[in-house]
Amino acid sequence: MTVIDGTSRSTPATSAQPQASAASSGVNACTALPRPHPRPTGRDSYTISEVVAFTGLTAHTLRWYERIGLMPHVDRSHTGQRRFSNRDLDWLVFVGKLRLTGMPVAHMVRYAELLREGESTFEERQELLESTRRDVITRIAELHDTLAVLDHKIEYYAGARTAPERHGA
To answer: What is the pLDDT of residues 84-98, one digit of tens each?
Structure first.
């Protein structure tokens, strides 16, 4: 069971085996739940170096996330070493998606604060996500326009190479 933002989702046991991509399986990548990163089955305690390997984040980034309140309440071993849970890893996947949207870190921290405050903040969390979604849609439109310009230039240069040479008089 995976819990992200208070929503429970059933997830199959993961393995290191490659899985089909959303495109090849006919799944709508925009509405499908993200696949969790392969983790050892039956474990729920990871060192910071294991989390670095799973997420691609640096140990410095993980410590910073904790310091600013984006990654609160990371458990510690009896020697004081951070021990991350599967829930922490699921949260980091979600934070990674928020980072990709361009959401400012301050808004991510605010979202995390609201999440800790409980169900009474659903409306404010929803508004934060809807605002971010609007920003993403705007960026996608800008990228589509940019892609059209690039495609035009690429076609122009491809056509210029195949055109017969012109010799001046």
So the answer is: 999 999 999 999 999
